[in-house]
């Protein structure tokens, strides 16, 4: 670990206080030109004594706008202090979590969530193919497994390119390589030449992790141009830590960018996703018309909350790598416990051993338990075959035990 370490509450308070001091303080500095200010003082009381010990709440009150991307070019000078902490969080994630080379530099920003970060990646690659190969929209496709998040077809819809889904095995949720070959061959004969591959580091419904090299082999076999993004919105803060042998990271030269979602496993406030990319890619989405903003406009979102960005920094440095490992292992322990009880009951399910998600065959689960325990189905319409349990911080062994007791009584 080069950057990631545990800091004390005092050290964190000190670092954030220092960062806020480097930002423009609208209370003391006359800043007439930008449509930005601290939170409304009539509504959000900024003199509460507890704020002294609550640096993130103080950041919310001071309300820095992190518009733009602060890992390259110039940025708005008004918020330089907190932008620096965002940069540190991005570098920590790129290198200490996602194994980026020490000498390599990465770009990235705190997006509004996983959907935006995926859209950002697909936007970059669509424009890359257009710019470098003069590709037409109908020649470019997004390709990912059938278990992918709906932000893939959504991005395709927004960016006017097709999404191609690859079938997976029913029980293992593995990509079916023969089908992938078939789908790619068909797409090729339908005029697709450029592929934006999105490999999952944990799917929403199953927590299954794709092997990105399956795509690499098939793309190379068919002599196709491709760019690869990893959607780690669900697994990004757990899988790279729980599976030390994981190859789904920046050690794989074909992986150009990765999405993470801090408002899931990291329990950051909603509106906190993460987009990280290798250098040299952000320029494909540069909006030249954004003349009034200092720095380059190269992100899907415009204005965005600096406080949300700091929440990522603060959570990572509060736990440190070992504290986080312990937290993840607690969740994995509970998940394994649940699986052992399901085994005893003979209930079939899918679980990746490095993930905190268990997806049970629907035929074992009575409807009354679905409602009582808020289980999530694979589909709300049609023939649902699966229900999932996500073992988050609040899902304790006592809760799981109650569920197991009810389930066993239902047989
Ligand atoms: C794998 C995956 N990708 C993307 C998303 C979208 O994330 P968000 O809701 O933060 O936009 C989710 C959300 O569940 C997800 O599980």
What is the overall silhouette?
globular
Order of helices and strands: HHHEHEHEHEHEHEEHEEHEEH
Distance between the termini: 49 Å
Report on the biggest sheet: 7 strands, mixed
What is bound: which ligands?
pyridoxal-5'-phosphate
Given helix and strand content, the structural type is alpha/beta
Q: How would you concisely characterize the structure shown here?
A:
By secondary structure, this protein is an alpha/beta fold. It has eleven helices and eleven strands. Pyridoxal-5'-phosphate is lined by residues 113-115, 118, 149, 151, 203-204, 231, 233-234, 261, 273.
Give a written overview of the molecule:
With 411 residues, the chain is of the alpha/beta class. It folds into three domains: 9-65, no CATH class; 77-307, Type I PLP-dependent aspartate aminotransferase-like (Major domain) (Aspartate Aminotransferase, domain 2, 3-Layer(aba) Sandwich), CATH 3.40.640; 321-409, Aspartate Aminotransferase, domain 1, CATH 3.90.1150.10. The chain has eleven helices and eleven strands. The chain has helices at 9-22, 55-62, 80-97, 114-133, 151-159, 177-189, 212-221, 239-242, 306-345, 367-373, 397-409, and strands at 106-111, 140-145, 162-166, 194-200, 225-232, 255-261, 273-278, 349-350, 357-361, 376-377, 386-390. The strands form two sheets. The protein has a seven-stranded mixed β-sheet with strand order 1-7-6-5-4-2-3, sandwiched between helices. Strands 8-9-11-10 form a four-stranded antiparallel β-sheet, with helices on one face. A hairpin with a 6-residue loop joins strand 8 (349-350) and strand 9. Helix 1 (9-22) runs parallel beside helix 2 (55-62), helix 2 packs across helix 9 and helix 4 crosses helix 5 (151-159). The radius of gyration is 23 Å and the shape is globular. The relative contact order is 0.13. Bound molecules: pyridoxal-5'-phosphate. The site of pyridoxal-5'-phosphate (PLP) has 13 residues, from helix 4.
């Amino acid at each position: 670990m080069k950057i990631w370490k545990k800091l004390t509450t005092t050290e964190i308070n000190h670092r954030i206080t220092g960062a806020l001091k480097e930002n423009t303080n609208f209370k003391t500095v006359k800043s007439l030109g930008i449509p930005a200010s601290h939170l409304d003082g009539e509504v959000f009381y900024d003199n509460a004594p507890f704020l002294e010990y609550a640096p993130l709440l103080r950041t919310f009150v001071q309300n820095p706008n992190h518009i733009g991307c602060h890992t390259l070019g110039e940025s708005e000078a008004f918020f330089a202090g907190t932008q620096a902490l965002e940069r540190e969080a991005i570098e920590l994630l790129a290198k200490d979590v996602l194994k980026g080379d020490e000498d390599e530099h990465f770009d990235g920003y705190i997006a509004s969530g996983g959907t935006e970060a995926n859209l950002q990646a697909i936007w970059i690659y669509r424009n890359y193919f257009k710019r470098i190969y003069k590709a037409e929209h109908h020649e470019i496709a997004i390709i990912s497994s059938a278990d992918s998040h709906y932000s893939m077809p959504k991005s395709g819809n927004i960016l006017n390119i097709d999404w191609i889904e690859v079938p997976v095995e029913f029980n293992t949720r593995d990509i079916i390589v023969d089908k992938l070959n078939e789908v790619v061959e068909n797409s090729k004969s339908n005029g697709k030449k450029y592929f934006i591959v999105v490999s999952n580091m944990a799917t929403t419904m199953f927590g299954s992790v794709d092997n990105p090299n399956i795509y690499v082999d098939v793309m190379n076999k068919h002599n196709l141009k491709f760019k690869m993004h990893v959607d780690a919105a669900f697994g990004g803060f757990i899988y790279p830590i729980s599976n030390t042998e994981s190859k789904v990271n920046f050690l794989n030269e074909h992986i150009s960018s990765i999405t993470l979602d801090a408002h899931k496993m990291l329990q950051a406030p909603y509106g906190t996703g993460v987009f990280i990319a290798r250098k040299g890619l952000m320029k494909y989405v540069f909006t030249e018309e954004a003349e009034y903003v200092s720095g380059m406009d190269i992100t899907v979102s415009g204005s965005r909350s600096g406080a949300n960005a700091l929440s990522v920094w603060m959570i990572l440095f509060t736990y440190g790598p070992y504290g986080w490992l312990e937290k993840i292992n607690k969740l994995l322990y509970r998940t394994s416990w649940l699986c052992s009880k399901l085994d005893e009951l003979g209930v079939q399910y899918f679980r990746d051993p490095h993930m905190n998600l268990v997806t049970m065959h629907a035929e074992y689960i009575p409807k009354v338990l679905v409602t009582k325990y808020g289980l999530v189905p694979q589909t709300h319409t049609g023939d649902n075959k699966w229900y999932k349990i996500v073992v988050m911080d609040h899902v304790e062994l006592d809760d799981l035990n109650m569920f197991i007791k009810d389930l066993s009584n239902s047989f």
